[in-house]
Structures are given as C-alpha cells and as structure tokens.
Design goal:
The protein is of the alpha+beta class. It is built from 4 helices and 10 strands, in the order E-E-E-E-H-H-E-E-E-H-E-E-E-H. The chain is elongated and about 100 Å long. The N terminus is likely disordered.
C-alpha cells in the first residue's frame, strides 16, 4: 500500500497530500475536518479535529513512519556509542547515518595530536557552507543511551533527519584547526603546534640584528645566519640550510 495522507470535510472533494505538504491547504470553513491515513479504498483510519490539530497529527505521523524506516535500516547502530567511541567509529557510524539521511554529521573534538583525536567531543550537523548546528532530537540518545526499552529515558527510535538540526552555533569548519577529511574535526591541532615549536627551536637564523651595532650586518631584516667564530665561519641553519650569511 502506498502511504498517503488525506484530509477532507463535508461537501468538499478529498485532497491528497504528502508528509512534507501542510494538510488542508486551500480549505476553509467550519469543518468538521477528518484526516485519513492510508488508502481509503483498502486500509485506513480517520482522525477528526481542527485544522491545526490535524496538521500537527499528520506531521507527527509522518515523523513516526520515517523514524521507523530509519530505525529499520540503522537498527544495529542503536546504543553503539554507549561505551565510548574513537575517531574511526565516528567515521563508520556517522558516515552510515549521513549517507542514509542526506545530512552531514560530524564530531568536533577538543584536540588532535600524534595519537589521534582526544578530549571532549560533541556531534553537530554541518551545512554545505561549513556552518555547524547543534544536534537535536533523539539521535544522540539513540546512539549513546541505554537500549533497555523499559527505561523511560531510552530512545527507541532515532527520530527523523528533519528533527536533528538544532540551533546554529558560533562554529564553522573553517575556524577549526584540524579535519581528517571525513567526519572528525578538532578545535586544536597539538601536532601542528608542536611541529612549529620544534622547527622554531631548531632554527638558528636571525632576522633583525641592527639593534646592536656590534651584531649589525647588511642582511638585517631578512632571515640570515651570523658567523660562528671570529674567522668568518658560518654555521648552517638546520631548518634553513640555504639562509645567507654576512660578516
């Protein structure tokens, strides 16, 4: 049976709508209004009420149907992150959900270093322009929560993708320090910072040497090396071996 949602009132032709279309568009008058879910010629049930109530009911019914469909496809992921997760699991799990839902779900970690990603983490919905939105709805609880259906706090269904996008955050992906090319970002890249520190520590070049007449040379203002001794022997910089030298 093809799912469809229909609404009509007395002395009015029945109109066919989809879950994404606001019910009763173009209808007016006092009613009563009846919402028919299913196929009136086969198997269906009717709900009567005001237009606003029926609109809300239709949206909720559509969400439940779609959420059940997502659960059927992704059911093995329920509670899959309850015991923690790493960046590989993020790419596997959020990758599947993203491919199925059409949304881009990402995890933002505190830091990235030689071990990988670490610190606190949170999931977000990433827009095409890089804007990050809070993850809303039941998806987080469905992935990270208890799978015991007797627990009233347990999320039995993940909800529908349209319920997962929350408020916009102050973050964009361009402002984050590291991206693994998939679903993991880090606010801070300790590996890059350490590399820059090591390079700076190994560099023996000078740039400005004109402050003291005793050390001033004609190359002040550019990266260069000074003599190692009074005989004019120049030491090569380990990071910049081509840096010039001057007496």
């Amino acid at each position: 049976m093809t799912k469809r949602y229909e609404i009509y009132k007395t002395d009015c032709d029945m109109g066919v709508i989809t879950p994404d279309t606001a019910p009763a568009v173009g209808y007016d008058g006092e009613g009563p209004y009846t919402l028919v879910l299913g196929d009136p010629q086969s198997s269906a049930f009717a709900v009567e009420g005001s237009l606003d109530d029926l609109r809300a009911f239709a949206r909720r019914a559509a969400d439940l149907v779609q959420s059940a469909q997502h659960h059927a496809t992704l059911r093995d992921l329920r509670g899959s992150m309850a015991d923690g997760y790493d960046h590989d699991q993020v790419n596997l799990i959020l990758g599947r959900i993203s491919a199925h839902s059409g949304l881009s779900l990402v995890c933002v970690w505190d830091c990235h270093d030689h071990v990988g990603f670490g610190g606190d983490s949170q999931f977000y919905v990433q827009a095409d322009n890089g804007q990050l939105y809070e993850l809303a709805g039941d998806l987080w609880t469905w992935l990270n929560g208890d799978t015991d259906d007797s627990d009233p706090a347990a999320a039995v269904l993940p909800g529908t993708p349209r319920t997962w996008t929350g408020h916009a955050t102050a973050m964009t992906t361009s402002g984050l320090a590291y991206h693994d090319g998939a679903h993991n970002y880090a606010r801070r890249d300790d590996l890059k910072a350490r590399t820059a520190f090591d390079e700076a520590a190994e560099c023996t070049c000078v740039v400005s040497c004109a402050d003291d007449p005793a050390t001033s040379c004609t190359l002040s203002g550019t990266r260069h090396v000074h003599p190692l001794d009074a005989h004019g022997n120049f030491g090569r910089c380990p990071e910049h071996p081509d840096a010039p030298g001057d007496l």
